[in-house]
TrEMBL record, chain A:
Recorded topology in the membrane: Multi-pass membrane protein
Name the record gives this protein: Branched-subunit amino acid ABC-type transport system permease component
Keyword Nucleus annotated: no
Keywords (A to Z) from UniProt: Amino-acid transport, Cell inner membrane, Cell membrane, Membrane, Transmembrane, Transmembrane helix, Transport
Keyword Transport: yes
GO biological process, one term: D-alanine transmembrane transport
GO cellular component entries: plasma membrane
Automatic annotation (TrEMBL), chain B:
Taxonomic lineage from the root: Bacteria, Fusobacteriati, Fusobacteriota, Fusobacteriia, Fusobacteriales
Subcellular location: Cell membrane
Membrane topology: Multi-pass membrane protein
Gene Ontology MF terms in the entry: branched-chain amino acid transmembrane transporter activity
Record's signal peptide: none
GO-annotated cellular components: plasma membrane
Name used for this protein in its record: Amino acid/amide ABC transporter membrane protein 2 (HAAT family)
Organism of origin: Hypnocyclicus thermotrophus
Amino acid sequence: MFIQQLINGLSLGSIYALIALGYTMVYGILKLINFAHGEIYMIGTYIGYYFFRMTFVLGLAKKYAVNSKIAVNFLDKQEIISQNPKLLMKYIANNFNEFGIIKDSNFRKSITNVAVEQAKGLKHMSEFINSNSIIIFLLLLIVSMFLTALVGIIIEKLAYKPLRNASRISVLLTALGVSIFIQNAGIKIFGGDPKAFPQLIPSKFYNITDNILISNHQIIIIFVSIILMILLEIIVHYTKVGKAMRAVSFDKSTAELMGIDVNKIISFTFAIGSALAAAAGILIGMRFNKIDPLMGMMPGIKAFVAAVLGGIGSIPGAVIGGLIMGISESLVVGYISSTYRDAIAFAILIVILLIKPSGIFGKNVKEKV
Amino acid sequence: MEQYILLIMTLITINIILAVSLNVINGLMGYLSLGHAGFMAIGAYTSAILTTQYNFPIFISVIIGAILAGFFGFLIGFPTLRLKGDYLAIVTLGFGEIIRIIILNMTITGGAKGYPGIPGIKGLNGFLIGLGFAIVTVIVITNIALSAEGRALLSIRENEIAAESMGVNITRYKIKAFIIGSLFAGLAGGLYAHLIQYVKPDNFNLYKTVDILLMVVLGGSGSITGSILAAIALTSISELLREFSEYRMLVYPLMLIILMLVRPNGILGKKEITDFISFKKKRGV
C-alpha cells in the first residue's frame, strides 16, 4: 500500500514539478506569481487535443473515407474503436440519423453497407494510430509545447508587460484576473463539458510484486519529466540564453546595463515555463483521459505550493517540492480520504511558510530600506 | 416586483459590508487578502446552523457568526502575519479554500448539497436590518480609518519598514485589521444566508472573493466611499444584466485587468467622495 502510493505520488509529483518549474522561473525573473500558469497548462492540453483531432482524426478520416462526424464522435468514445467490428457496425447503424449520413431510414440495406464501410475505415484508422502511437505522442507533445510557448509569450506581452513598474498588488491582481478570464473563456470556447483526451498509448499494468502495480503511463510520465528537466538544466546552465536568464533574475537593471535584452529574456522564460506546463498537460491528459476548462485551477495552485515549498526561484527546489506535493497528496488519498486531497496542499503551504518561508532551497533575503 | 427590488437592495447592503470590510485589509493596510469569501462562509454557516437547529433569533445568530469569523481571522492573522505581500495573499487564498473544503466535508453543514431551509429575513425588515448593519459597518470602519489606528494602517501601506522604525507595532495592527475585516465579512455572510435562505460551499469560492475584490479595486483601494459606490454599482449592474450572466465571469476579470492597466488605484483612488464636495473654501498652501 505504502509503496504503491509512493509510485502514484512520484508520477503525480513529476507533473507538479513540471508546472512548478514555470512558476519558479517566472518568479525568479519578474517577482510575479503567475496565477494564470495553471490555465496555460490547460491551454496546452487543449492544443494537444485539437491538434490530434484536426490532423489525425479528420485527416485519417478523409484518407479512409470515414464520415468526419463519426470519426470525431469516436475520438470522444475511443474505447469502442478497438472492439469487435460487429458491435462497431451496429453502433454506427443505430446512430446514422445523429451523424446525418442517410436521412431516410427505409434503405436498410444501404445502411448496412455504409456501416460496414465506415467500420472498416475506422478500423484502419485505429490501426494506423496504434501502430504509430509513439511517434504521434511525441509529435503531439512537441507541437503542443511549441504553440503553448507562443501563448505564454502573448499573455506576457499583453497583460504583464505594461505593468513592469506597477505595484506588486496590481500585478498580482492582474494575474488573478488573467487566470479567471482564461478559465471562463475556455468554458465559452471549448465548452464546459469534459472532453476525452486520446489515449494514444494503451495503458498496461505491470506487477512488481503481488499488490504493487505500475502502469506504463506512470513510467512514461516520470521518464518524459526527467528528460525535460535535464534539458532545462542544460539550457539554464550551459547556454548563453540561460546565462542571461540567471543574470536577469540576479539583478535586472545591472543585466540590462550589461547589454542583455531583458524583455527578450522574460519572453523566453515565459516560453519555457509554458512549454513545460503544456508537456505536463499532455501527460496528464493521456493518463486520465479527461480534460475540461477548469482542469488547470487545482494543479496550478498545487504546483505553486510546490514551488514555494522548494524555495521559489530555485529550479531544483521546484522539482523536489513537486515530488513532495505529489507523494503527500497520494498518501492522503490512500490513507485518509480523497475528499481532502486539495486541502493537504494548503496545509503544507501554511506549515512551510510558518516554519521556513523561504522554502527548502530558498535564500533568506534580508530586507533593505 | 417590490419584493424583488427590496431583495436587490438588501443584497447591495450586504455587498457594501463586504467591500468596506475588505477595504480595511486591501485598501488601508495595502495587503492583498484572497480569503474573504472563506470568512463570509464561516459567518453564513454558523448563523444558519444556529437559527435552524438551535432556534436562536436571527439577529443574535448573525452576530455570533460574525464573532466566530472574527476569531478565525485572529487565528489566521496571528501566525501568518510574519509574511509579506504575495505570500500573504496566497496563504489567505489557501485558508479560504481550506475553510470551503472543510465545510464541504462536514455533515452538519450538509456538504456539497448545501444547507437549505434557513429562516429568512424578507422584504422591508430584511432591507432595514441589512441597512442598519451596513451603516454600523461604515461608521465603525470610517472611525477606524480616521483614528490613529487608521493612520498606523496607512503607514504600513506606504512603507512598512519606515512605519516599524517609527514605532508602529506592525504585527498588532495587522492582526487588528484582519480581525475587523473577517468579523464584518462573517456578519455579511450571516445576513446573506438569511436573505437567500440557502447556502452551499460553492457560494464562497475564489470567484466570490474576486467579486468583492473588484468592488474594492474599482472604487479605489483605500477609499471607503469608493467601495460603497462600487458595491452599489456592480450589484445593480449584474442584476440588470442578469440575462447575460454567463458572460459575467468573463467581463469581471477583464474589468480587473483593464483597471489595473489603466488606473491601478481605482476610479476614486485613495480619495473619498467628500474630498470632492467641499463646503469650505480651499485654503492656499
